[in-house]
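Narrative of accomplishments. A recurring question from our advisory board has been how the design workflow behaves on a single, concrete structure rather than in aggregate. To address it, we present the structure tokens for one chain from the evaluation set, followed by the sequence designed for it. No filtering or post-editing was applied between the two.
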């Protein structure tokens, strides 16, 4: 039985490895076929564009030849017509003189008088000067054959084929309503200046840009739970304009319920996904809570302040064990929060340590972990202890938060006393 079991495990291992090999071969073949198609299409497009550009340049040069030809021939044509007119006039006058000589005496005198009068007015010795051939324009085309060598050098260096993209997606981390995408360089010889991240639903045929910049991590928001998304990334080399090939697409999804603010709360308006709250009324007051206790210990809860209004020391952004109506701030028992001036409150008491004041674009993050039970400090006097880290603008405070009872999940909330504050939660 042991031998049979061992053989079965080996056979299963071979099957798994065989499946992996088959998938690898399939990926190589599909990527090679796709690369061939891309190369053919690209060079066909180049040939068409280059042919069009050469045709346009040829038309332009031929038009220049036509213009020069017409402008330089016209004066010569006018001169030739003037000479021909003079010669014709002289020939006509000669014939008229010959007729006058051959006529009768009375008729001869009249014709000779007419001939003499015409001869006196014609200027047979006044003709335009015929230019020398050296002074006449002689058209030619100046064509630099070195352009062929320049173009040939560029063509021979144009395009590269890589066995793998220079960057690959390294990790996909699910967040409530979002996915953190991390990527890294896999080509040590490639110096990246910028990265470009795209994503799409697996049911869609088109990727869309979601990030361009120098960071190697980005959180993609507005992710529907339990829906597969594909992500890919490419890079632009230092001093280059073109982007590298795309990384192998990676599929990820989030099983976590998106964070949402409570709808219908007076004084606040929400975005369509209910993850952005805007304080738009200074008449009403109170704490805007999350629709459900969707924050769990071990996660990172992030607030990003999109716009700011007039600050007040009673403003608050934070988490609490339960909703308590009737309070105008989270600066109360069973809650931890940060005011817009950077003050940190734990169960309604202000801490000595303080964070920077909140400004437009600031992010405030909460990382909370349950202190291990079974130790003397874990459960003092029936209180439940949580280790809280609050970070903002590269500063952080760490403290223990005592609660009356164990909480598997927490609410989040905010309160602002003046309009203009807009907060995104994820």
């Amino acid at each position: 039985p042991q031998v049979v079991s061992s053989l079965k495990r080996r056979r299963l291992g071979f099957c798994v490895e065989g499946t992996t090999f088959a998938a690898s071969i399939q990926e190589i073949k599909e990527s090679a076929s796709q690369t061939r198609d891309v190369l053919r299409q690209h060079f066909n497009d180049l040939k068409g564009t280059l042919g069009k550009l050469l045709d346009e340049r040829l038309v332009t040069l031929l038009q220049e030849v036509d213009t020069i030809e017409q402008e330089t021939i016209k004066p010569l044509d006018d001169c030739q017509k003037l000479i021909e007119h003079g010669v014709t006039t002289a020939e006509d006058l000669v014939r008229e003189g010959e007729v006058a000589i051959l006529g009768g005496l009375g008729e001869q005198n009249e014709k000779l008088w007419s001939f003499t009068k015409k001869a006196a007015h014609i200027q047979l010795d006044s003709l335009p000067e015929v230019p020398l051939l050296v002074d006449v324009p002689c058209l030619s085309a100046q064509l630099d054959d070195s352009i062929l060598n320049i173009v040939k050098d560029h063509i021979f260096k144009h395009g590269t084929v890589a066995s793998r993209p220079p960057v690959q997606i390294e990790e996909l981390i699910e967040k409530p309503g979002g996915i953190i995408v991390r990527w890294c360089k896999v080509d040590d010889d490639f110096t990246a200046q910028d990265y470009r991240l795209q994503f799409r639903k697996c049911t869609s045929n088109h990727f869309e840009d979601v990030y361009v910049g120098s960071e190697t991590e980005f959180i993609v928001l507005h992710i529907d739970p339990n829906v597969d998304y594909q992500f890919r990334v490419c890079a632009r080399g230092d001093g280059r304009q073109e982007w590298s090939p795309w990384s192998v697409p990676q599929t990820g999804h989030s099983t976590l319920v998106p964070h949402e603010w409570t709808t219908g709360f007076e004084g606040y308006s929400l975005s369509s996904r209910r993850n952005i709250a805007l304080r738009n009324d200074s008449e009403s007051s109170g704490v805007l809570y999350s629709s459900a206790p969707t924050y769990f210990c071990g996660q990172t809860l992030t607030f990003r302040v999109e716009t700011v209004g007039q600050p007040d020391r009673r403003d608050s952004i934070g988490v609490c064990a339960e909703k308590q109506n009737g309070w105008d701030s989270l600066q109360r028992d069973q809650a931890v929060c940060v005011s817009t001036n950077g003050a940190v409150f734990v169960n309604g008491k202000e801490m000595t340590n303080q964070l920077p004041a909140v400004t437009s674009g600031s992010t405030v993050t909460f990382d909370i972990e349950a202190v291990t039970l079974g130790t003397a400090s874990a459960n003092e006097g029936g209180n439940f202890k949580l280790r809280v880290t609050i970070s903002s603008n590269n500063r952080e405070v760490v403290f223990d938060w005592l609660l009356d009872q164990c909480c598997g999940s927490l609410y989040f909330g905010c309160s602002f006393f003046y309009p203009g504050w807009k907060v995104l939660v994820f």
